Amino acid sequence: MDTEISSKVFQNPLILERILSSVLDENNTISNQYLRLVSKSFDHGYLSFLKKRNREIRIESMRASVFVNCEKVEIRKLVSYFKFLNSVVKVNVRKVEVFGTGELHSAFRQPVHDLILKGFIEGNYNSIEKLVGLTDLCDGCTDCIRMSVTCLDYGPI
Ligand SMILES: [Zn+2]
């Protein structure tokens, strides 16, 4: 294919969004990060796609794993994933829901709570309207209670 035509196709944001949404299903955005290297428009499209997808965050935990909007993230990589969402994707999160906390291994409860609160929510403090389920991991620490002042919807699941 003529490279000039193909580059024009990939610079069209609508076409690019369709391509990316067909490639990036709910649980493989991390493994497909190489798409950012294809071109500047792919990089921009990829980050825009993630920004849109992560306006509402559903965090589910199962024994020793955490799923962020269905994306499996190892607990030891959670801090860098949240940093990526905050600093690179520049998410503007409105809602955070934490599910399945009873399934999480007891040794991970406090670290996961702290990672969600300090590593993720603090960077989105002003945009978060809903925060539910996080207090199930700490039984209502002072930092969580502070969030109840600014959230419209706050509390346990
Ligand atoms: Zn707490």
Automatic annotation (TrEMBL):
It holds the Pfam family PHA-1. This is FTH domain-containing protein.
